Structures are given as C-alpha cells and as structure tokens.
Amino acid sequence: MRNERRWFSMLALMLALALLLAACGVQQQPPATGGGTGGPPIKIGAIFDLTGPTADVGTPYSKGQIAFIEWKNANGGVAGRQLQLISQDYAYEVPRAEELYTQFVTQDKVVVFSGWGTGDTEALKGKITADKIPFISASYSATLANPAETPYNFLVAPTYSDQLIIAMKWALDDWKAKGKSGVPKFAYLINDSPFGRSPLADGTAFAKANGVETPLEVPSPRGATDLTPQLTQIRDFGANYVFLQNVSSPAALAIKNAKSLGLDVQFVCLNWCANELLIKLAGQDAEGVVGAIPFSPEGEGAKVALNFAREKGIDYGGADSTFVQGWTAMSILVAGIERTLKDGKELTGENIKNTLETMGPIDTGGVTLPVVFSSTDHAGLKSLRMFRVQNGKWVAITDFISAK
Amino acid sequence: MQSGTFHTSYASDMALRPYWPQRVRIAIVLIAVLIFPWFADRYWLNLANTIAIAAIGAIGLNILVGYTGQISIGHGGFLAVGAYTAGLLAVRLDMPMWITIPVASLFTALVGAFFGLPSARLKGLYLAIATLASQEIIIWLLTHGKLLGIGESLSLPPATNNLFGVPLNALGNNDFVFYWITVGFLALTVIFVSNLFRSRAGRAFVAIRDQDIAAQVIGVDIFRYKLLAFATSSFFAGLAGALTAHYRGIISWERFTIDTSILYLAMIIIGGLGSVSGSIYGAAFMVLLPAMLANLARSVSGVVPDINSYLPFIQQGAFGLAIILFLIFEPEGIVKMWRNVKDYFRLWPFSY
Fold it and tell me: Which residues of B touch A (CB under 8 A)?
C-alpha cells in the first residue's frame, strides 16, 4: 500500500507538471508556418463535432474544411499569406464551445470563425457580435440570418426553414403528380435539440397556409437504437410524407425501422441526413428517399475538392456531399478574406463583414448557386435542388426551387 | 488535529481557522483571488467564472450527497430550474439580476423540496432513481415547454445585467465583471455552508447520513431535515443556474441534461464528499482537465503531429481514468490528498 501510494503521488505529480506545462504552453505564439511573402499567417478558428452526437456528419465536414485550407495554402495562400486553421473538437457541448471560442478569439486572435451546431451558435451570438468576428456555422437556423440582430453570423446555405418549405413544396407537387386527391399528411421526425426544432414553426405555418393539417412532431431520442415506437406514432397519425431533420445515423435507423414495420411513407431528408452516409447505413432501404441537398457534389468546385482528397488520401468515410459542404463553406469565408486584402483594407472582422455584404455573388464552382450576402440579409442562398436515391446514388430530380 | 494548542476562550474554540498557518493560507488565497483578474485574459477569466459557478453548484450537491447522504442525480434539473426562472423573470418582466437571482434561488429551493418528498420513503439507489425521474421531468417540461411559452432557447436582455441600477457593461467587459459576481457569490456560499455544519440543522444532516435510525431515536425529525437538505442543496443549484443564465446571456436545456448531473456528482466524488473545499477542488479539476489536456496537445503538436486527431478520445479517456484512479487510490478525493501533503510536512522529517 505504501509503495502504491508513492507511485500514485509520483503519477499525480507528473500529471500536475504536464498540466502546468500545458498552461504555460499556450502563452507562446505558435511559430509561423510557411513564411509566405505577404506577412504573417491569417488565423481562422473552428470547432468541430468529432465525438458528440452529430459526429457522423461532423467528421467529414471538418475534413472538408481542413482540406480546403491545405489546398489553398498549397496554391499560394491568400495574397501571398498562408492560412492557419486553429480547430478543436467540442463534442457538441455548449460550454466547451464557449470555452474554445473565447480561447481562439482572445489568445490566438483569429479573425474569422467557423462553428457547427445550432445550440452553440445561438449561445455564442452575443459574443460574436461583441467581438466582431465574422462567423459561419453549419447551423442554418433562420434566427441567425437577420443582420439587425446577429450582424456577424453568415449562413452559407438556405435556412432550415427554407429547406423545409422547399421540401414541402416538392411534396405537394409530388402528391399531385401521383394523381392523388386532397392534401397529404405531413409528420416531422427530428433530432431532439434546437437543431431539430429550428424549422418546425415556419414549416407548420407553410403547411397550414396550403391546407395541410398541422404536421405531427416526433422527436427521436438521442442515442436511440430502435425508433419503432416513434414510427408507430407516425403510422397511427397517417402521415404520407415524413420530414427528417436529423443527422445520418438516426435517420438511417428510422428508414430501416420503417421498412421492417411495413410503413408506407415517403421520407424526405433535409441537409444533414441527405448524404452518402445515409445510403451506406440504410443500404437497400434508402432507395427512393428524397433529400434537400444544398451542396451538390457534382459541380466543378466539388471535383476539385474530391480530387484533392483522393490525391492526399483523405478518408472522409465516403460522405462526398458533406465533405464538399465543409470545403465550400470554408471557401466562402476565405473568399471574403481574399477580397478584403485585395481591396487593400486591413484584415479586421468589421472589414471582412462589410466586404462579404458588398462583394456581390461568390462563385462556388457549381456546388451551389452563387452566394450573395447583403447588409439586410445574411442568408446567402435561397434555393436548392431536391435529390432522390436511385441505385445507391443521389440523383437530382428537380431544378433549383426557392422557398418564396 | 494539531496538538499543543490550548483554547483559552470559547471564541477561539469555535473559530473556523484557529491555527496561524490556516490564516496565512486564507490570506494568500484571498490575495491571489483579488489579483488574478487584473492579469488574466478573457480565456482564463471565462474558465475562472465557469469554475466558480460549478463550485457553487457542487457545494450545493455536496450538502445533499456528501453531508446528508441522499444520492441525487437530478442536480442538472435543478440548475435548469434556477436558470429558466431567472431567464423568464428577466425576459418577461424585465427584472434586473439582483432580483432574479435571489428569486430564482428560492424558487429552486421550493422545487427541490418538492422533488425531495420521495426521500421520506426511499433510500440509496431507490432515491437515486427517484431523483433521476425529477431530472427527466424538468427537462421534459422545458423541451416541450410550450405551456411555459419557452422556445428552444431563452436570450436574456443585456439590460437586465445590472446591480441596483448600475449596468454591468459600464464596469468593464462581461468576463471581468462577472468574475467579481461569481467569486463573490462563491465566497458567500462557502461562508454559509461552512457554518451550516456547525449549526443544529447541519449536525442533524450529518446524523442522518451516518445512521438515520439512530438519528431518529435521538430525536432528529428525519423527514423535515431531509426536505431541508433538499431545499438548501437546490437553493445553491438555483443560484448557480441563475448565475449561468445571466453570465451567458442565453440558455438552452442542452446545458442541463443528465450528463451535467453526472458531471457534478463526479466533481464532488473527485473533490471529496462532505467537504466544502473539496467541492471547489473538484469543480476546478473537472473544468480544467479537458482544457489543460487540449492545451497540452497543442503545445506538443509540433513533436507529435497527429495528436490533434486523437485528442477527443484522449479527453474522454482521461475523464473516465481520473474517476477510476481516484476511486482506487484516494476515494476521499483531492481534499484528502491535500491533507496527506500537509500531514507529511507537519511531521517532516520525523514521520512515523
């Protein structure tokens, strides 16, 4: 016992020393990489979900963002300056996001920031405004699109509300095209979080305006391994279209469970489950599922991203569209930085924000329609195409549809 | 206990810190606490505030679990009650924080006493499951809170962050100002709870923990004191929750899930059950562990390039490892380790 105690205090001492070292370590400035001609590296902060409940899509998204920075640096960086991405996993935990954001902004002095979830982006919005940090995130919650309230949040995809309304428009057309009478019944099967509930109020308003009965809202519990009870609820309600606002793994589970339950509904995935992971996980059962995919993995810009990944041997688990989404989101943010430097302005949050608002359409190489921000609207995109899984691949079935 | 000290007055016998090294130490701690914010940047202030708020919550939980022996895994729910009460008062009625914080704390104490009712009949694991139910009920009410008129998250108007009419943002940046508020409340909490266990009620709590039947035999009204323990514990949970709401300016239920309850239990187990200072050490340890691991990984990432991709797993592993190591080697927590260090030097060089 005596020896064990001594061994343990030794271990504790070493741990304490290591932590102390770490505490001192952050005070030092990391050495400048590359040493481009145009000056010090431009610092970009990012938080990713690599271990939390949305890690299935969080991982390929993060790989896309990191790959874009690498690719940009390999091609000479921005105005001769290298980009430096300071990123970390936050496991979808709001307090952790706040801590990392504060660290990256106050200690590392990042000029722009790329976030992830709806809950944490909303929790940070006050700080973002106070710190004047242009912020994109993978949350397209409509509440973040109004510059009067959140002047530094930029949305690089149609808002979740727009996505849901577009999906409903498609559903109503599809119902008519199938020659059925009356109106269909809708249901939501959503992630039990602010992310899941974000578009529901706007979607329900749209549905009601079109004479559809108030859609049934069914949250799927985090970490559930069987969604049969939830699907039974949807069956009893008699829904024809089920809108999935969730990430791929629980969505795939729902689709498989529905198949074994013999449930005859049309599943419609919004952004975060409409990707290749869903097909991989649900296999045959994914056939016929429809998805709202804002970032098409087919355009020229997507080919550059996917080729770069192949060259470098980056493993993103086969989720092409999510990888491209991460890449493209980062490219839009960097386009703002590039333009600010080109205009000869100092690289401050305020200047980058003004540039993004005034620079006109940002081309994403056909991945999306050109992205346009204005000083009154920070939702850069208004429309997307609907896709359907056919023979294990997402195939576009409509032209660009907008919510308005 | 130190030998060779002879109290000559009741006052010195009752003193919380009768020995001079204790007084020197408390003076050093106080000076450090007062100096710290003037040198720290916002990142460290943010960590300090997180620790202070967590410590208030952990002390609250320790009253219930460590001192009264009633296991609770519903602490996250009570934090949520405090946060949402303060939030709703601020949003709906535009009340300033110096009203919302006490009201939220008192209301949470009431809610805590209500959810403590099963403790009259249940003990040990059965009570733990009953408190788990309270956690789930509270979170369910918040997520399906249309009846309370709560949306997904609640943004507090910045104007409600004022003390007796003085707006906080006039006094400095948010992290700096809240440092004084959170640390001030922590100091009050420490003073109150340290003294609580020298009072009649505190001794009754400890009696219930040690042997509830014997306590009943000597005349402790068990039901009353158990409820009182639940109420006091929840009062501090409410205080921590209300401080979180005003400090962060926005709250969502995601902050107060079952994970939070378990994190708080881990804090007091690692810090030391039945110890006020242990709760603070535990809170500091649990907040600093992931942050310091991340910083460590960053400072060695030049030497070990791939460390960042393993970091998430190292962090999760470290959390579990810390709890297991403490349970094996020092079940009484950090506070006992600190005592061992003190004992060693007290007897040095002639230890036996």
Answer: 41-43, 46-47, 50, 143, 152-153, 155, 158, 174-175, 248-250, 252, 254-255, 288, 290-296, 298-300, 302, 308, 311-313, 315-316, 325, 329-330, 337
- Give the CATH number of the domain where residue A126 resides: 3.40.50.2300
Cα(A121)–Cα(A98) distance, rounded to whole angstroms?
Answer: 9
Instruction: Based on the fold, state whether residues A195 and A288 are members of the same structural domain.
Output: yes
Mutate to test the interface with A, among B49, B51, B296 (most CBs of A within 10 A): B296
Q: Are residues A254 and A396 in the same domain?
A: yes
Residues of chain A positioned with their CB less than 8 A from the CB of B295: 22-23, 25-26
Which residue, B288, B79, B45, B29, is CA-closest to B180?
B45
Could you tell me if A183 and A263 lie in one domain?
A: yes
* Domain tally, chain A: 2
Under 8 Å CB-to-CB from A122, ≥6 apart: which residues? A139, A141, A143, A144, A194, B152, B153, B250, B252
Residue A238's SS3 state is: coil
Same domain, residue pair A52 and A93: yes
State whether B311 and A21 contact (CB < 8 Å): no
| In B74-199, alpha helices (H) | 75-93, 97-115, 124-143, 174-196
Which residue, A93, A195, A54, is CA-closest to B259? Answer: A93
Question: How would you write the pLDDT of chain B (352 residues) with one tens digit per residue?
Answer: 556 677 788 887 777 777 777 888 889 999 999 999 998 888 899 999 999 999 999 999 999 999 999 989 999 999 999 999 999 999 888 888 899 999 999 999 999 999 999 888 888 889 999 999 999 999 888 877 665 666 667 788 877 888 887 777 777 788 899 999 999 999 999 999 999 998 999 999 999 999 989 999 999 999 999 999 999 999 999 999 999 999 988 888 888 989 899 999 999 999 989 899 999 999 999 899 888 888 887 777 777 767 767 777 777 788 788 888 888 888 888 888 888 888 888 887 776 6
Q: Which residues, 6 or more positions from A108, have their beta carbon under 8 angstroms from its beta carbon? A: A43, A45, A86
| 3-state SS class at A401 | strand
Does residue A144 share a domain with residue A62?
Answer: yes
Does A26 contact B290 at a Cβ distance shorter than 8 Å? Answer: no
Q: Does the complex come out with an ipTM higher than 0.90?
A: no
Co-location of A393 and A249 in the same domain: yes
Domain encompassing residue A254: 160-293+386-402
User: pTM of the entire structure?
Assistant: 0.82
A165 and A283 assigned to the same domain: yes
